[in-house]
Specification:
- GO terms for molecular function: DNA binding; DNA-binding transcription factor activity.
- By secondary structure, the protein is mainly α.
- It has helices spanning 10-22, 26-34, 42-49, 53-65, 86-112, and strands at residues 40-41, 69-74, 77-82.
- The protein has two domains: 10-84, Winged helix-like DNA-binding domain superfamily/Winged helix DNA-binding domain (Arc Repressor Mutant, subunit A); 85-117.
- It has five helices and three strands.
- Strand 2 and strand 3 form a beta hairpin.
- Helix 3 packs across helix 4.
């Protein structure tokens, strides 16, 4: 499963699970997408995510510690920028899969719907 790891150790799977755990929070995904092509500060992210600055700061800290964001202080303001482009590839694959499943379910339910011709 972990092709980049030479051995099939539990540590590799723990690291992979931690990586996915970072992405298992909707606010973190929104933050990552907002920072995909621009730098933003805590206040701007809080406003766009409709969350408190404290909540955004907590998520920013976790994402920064995990290496997904870069933090840069400019004067009294700290700006954040995405660092890990593989996140977007992974999310695109997941979104494509969800869309495909949704279309398959819609086709299935349309075919078995009572009164459908």
């Amino acid at each position: 499963m972990c092709r980049s790891v030479q051995d099939d150790s539990d540590l590799a799977y723990v690291a992979l699970a931690k990586h996915f755990a970072m992405l298992a929070e909707p606010t973190r995904l929104r933050i990552l997408y907002l920072l995909r092509d621009q730098e933003l500060n805590v206040g701007a992210l809080a406003q766009q995510c409709h969350c408190s600055q404290a909540n955004i700061s907590r998520h920013l800290h976790a994402l920064t510690q995990h290496g997904m964001l870069r933090r840069e202080a400019r004067g009294n303001t700290v700006y954040y920028q995405a660092m890990d482009s593989s996140v977007y590839v992974l999310c695109t694959l997941a979104c494509d899969k969800l869309s495909q499943q949704s279309q398959q379910q819609a086709a299935l339910f349309g075919a078995v719907r009572p009164g459908a011709d």
